[in-house]
Design brief:
This protein is mainly alpha-helical. The protein has one domain: Serine Threonine Protein Phosphatase 5, Tetratricopeptide repeat. The chain has 11 helices and no strands. Helix 3 packs antiparallel against helix 4 and helix 7 packs antiparallel against helix 8.
């Protein structure tokens, strides 16, 4: 079953509708880099547009043999994902990124709400808002936004990793394993994702079936 359908099923069953639980470990991890939040709230410039399509770049990423090549492909993919096609939305995204960097999450959410209202089919608007909810440990809201990201871009490895991290934090290791495994199928060189998946699999091997 595709990840977006897994997520929809889990939401329908109420398995993910759990209260956010504050965790010092999650708060510390949330600023630790690209894989520990749903996307990197960095530059949206991406002035040099890659020639290849997102689909072909994702295909190449899945087959990449080393981290350096994967990083280059990932940057090209992110540049394309960042392109909203609207100067207004691009400006609002830059402002939201600044707000995230200074941890003004209230302002970031206001900006991202506007972005989503203007461009509901722009996956990075949903993804960036999911990131903010994750940083605020509002996991149910983050999960709901990730569902939208995966409906628009099923191979969004940042969103797949992010939902896996949330599920692991909520103690749902088997569901987390599905999403983290899928994230690594798309982008096999995410070290943090591989590390968390390894820990989950070790726990599951010792758990009753």
């Amino acid at each position: 079953m595709a990840p977006a359908l897994w997520l929809a099923a889990l939401l329908t069953l109420g398995l993910l509708a759990l209260p956010a639980q504050a965790s010092e470990n999650t708060a510390a991890a949330s600023t630790g880099g690209e894989e520990t939040i749903l996307t990197d709230p960095g530059s949206l410039d991406g002035e040099d547009e890659p020639i290849q399509s997102v689909g072909s770049l994702l295909d190449a990423l899945a087959l990449s043999e080393d981290g350096e090549a994967a990083d280059e492909l990932s940057q090209q993919i992110q540049n394309l994902w960042n392109q909203s096609g609207s100067e207004t939305v691009d400006l609002l995204m830059r402002r939201a990124s600044v707000a995230i960097r200074v941890r003004n999450y209230t302002m970031a959410l206001d900006l991202l709400d506007t972005i989503i209202a203007l461009e509901p089919d722009y996956a990075e608007g949903w993804n960036r808002r999911a990131t903010v909810h994750f940083l605020r440990q509002d996991y149910a809201l983050s999960i709901a936004d990730v569902e939208q990201v995966l409906r628009l871009e099923p191979r969004h490895y940042g969103a797949l990793s992010g939902i896996g991290f949330i599920l692991e934090e909520l103690g749902q290791d088997r569901q987390a394993q599905l999403f983290l495994s899928e994230a690594l199928r798309v982008h096999p060189h995410m070290s943090r994702t591989r590390e968390v998946l390894g820990a989950i699999e070790r726990r599951l091997r010792g758990a009753p079936i």
